[in-house]
Amino acid sequence: MLQVKVFDFLKDDERKSLGDIDNYILNYIESNPDEFVRLTQNEICERIFITQTSLSRFTKKVGFNSFKMLQIHVAKHLEKYLIIPELKLNTVVELEDVKRNIFEQYINLVKIVFSTIDDNHLNSLINLINSRKKTCGFRNWFFFWNW
């Protein structure tokens, strides 16, 4: 699964103040949110080789009262990006239903991709392009040239 920004509410300075273990846990949750929601606290600790105390401290540092509250937050965040096929194969389907379903799935995929964009990386790319006097780009049929 794509990495989903579950902790997008954390400010940059809050993210920077997290320690190595906290960043390790954060990256695990954002890389495996569906797995994080399914497993118990003990199973997660065994899987990623951390102590339950480390996970409890991380939970408090990111603003949750308990591990279950953190799991609920992650589950609610995942719910936004869940792709649920509504059409059943054994029913007669109208063309409008198919088009609506495709559109909804497309919107969900766009949300997933949009949530994975790293703002710092995007800003550095924009600054790099703006700082160059000569710019050239290609994308399928699209071409731009800036001299």
Automatic annotation (TrEMBL):
Source superkingdom: Bacteria
Domain HTH rpiR-type positions: 5-81
GO molecular function, one term: carbohydrate derivative binding
Keywords for the protein's UniProt record, in alphabetical order: DNA-binding
Pfam family membership, one: HTH_6
Keyword flag Cell division: no
Name this protein carries in UniProt: Putative DNA-binding transcriptional regulator
Organism from which the protein derives: Mycoplasmopsis gallinacea
Lineage: Bacteria, Bacillati, Mycoplasmatota, Mycoplasmoidales, Metamycoplasmataceae
